[in-house]
Design brief:
This protein is mainly alpha-helical and 267 residues long. The protein is built from eight helices and seven strands, in the order ααβββαααββαββαα. It has a three-stranded antiparallel β-sheet.
Length: 267
């Protein structure tokens, strides 16, 4: 059990390091793009098949619409499905996704951990110190998470007919560098309910709306452009890390099983 825990912690470290290393190039690529490269009802040049020229044409059906498996057995991964899935989410399933991501125990605990970190040195949001301040921070963290989920997966995904899921390319899609490029691109590219690609207005817009709404309950010291820009950057980085974990988690799980199996054989 100790060896398994050590391996999973190592995997977490690798994944987050990979996200950190890949985030700057993604930003650099968008600096040279024009607005027309990202906005439009259909962006054929950014279709997964054309981007990586690798996915099989045979569609894969889905029954539930949401993924109930967990990354490394712990982290919820409701939004991840195979990239060949063609069945869009219903309106009810989009709101179900927003609800599940907001009330999942892992996410609730993570919000508490984040609040504890921001409590050190009275970081944003600046509620002060002490037990009462921590309670406010924890409540604000839960509100931040919930509002962004509702705006992204619920409201905007429904109104704009966008699918808020992450469509995993998998090992069949190509080698690791190609899959990393695809994973990073999904931060800004979404699939419409009709299967075509478009700018990820529901994801990016939901994030911005959620952060904007937080000014209602954040203290005045944390209501300024610099703080909001920092929070947007943090959210984007979290999106990069989340996409990479969703893309490579099954591969890491196979690697874990292989390592543990070899370790068991040598005992």
């Amino acid at each position: 059990m100790t060896g398994q825990l050590y391996f999973r912690l190592s995997v977490f470290t690798v994944v987050f390091a990979l996200g950190f290393a890949c985030a700057p190039p993604a930003c650099a690529q968008t600096d040279t793009a024009t607005l027309d490269d990202f906005i439009g009802p259909y962006l054929p040049a950014l279709e997964p098949e054309l981007l990586l020229n690798s996915l099989p044409a045979t569609p894969v059906t889905t029954t539930t619409g949401l993924n109930n498996q967990r990354i490394l057995g712990v982290i919820p991964d409701y939004q991840t499905v195979d990239a060949r899935v063609t069945t869009p989410l219903t309106v009810r399933q989009k709101w179900e996704l927003a609800f599940k991501e907001s009330v999942d125990p892992f996410n609730i605990v993570s919000a508490g951990i984040g609040a504890a970190f921001s409590q050190q040195g009275d970081q944003t949001p600046k509620y002060g110190e002490g037990g009462q301040a921590f309670g406010k921070r924890y409540g604000a963290a839960l509100a931040d998470m919930t509002t962004q989920n509702v705006f992204s997966a619920g409201v905007l995904a429904t109104l704009l007919h966008q699918d808020p899921r992450y469509f995993r390319m998998g090992a069949e899609g190509g080698k690791i560098p190609k899959r990393i490029v695809y994973s990073l691109s999904r931060l800004f590219i979404a699939r419409q309910d009709n299967g075509k690609s478009t700018f990820n207005t529901s994801g990016i817009g939901g994030m911005i709306l959620g952060i904007g709404l937080s000014n209602v309950y954040y203290p005045a010291a944390s209501e300024n452009g610099e703080v909001m820009l920092g929070r947007i950057t943090t959210s984007l980085f979290s999106g990069v890390t989340g996409n990479l974990m969703s893309e490579f988690a099954p591969d890491l799980q196979k690697l874990e099983d292989k390592v543990l199996r070899r370790h068991k054989d040598h005992l």
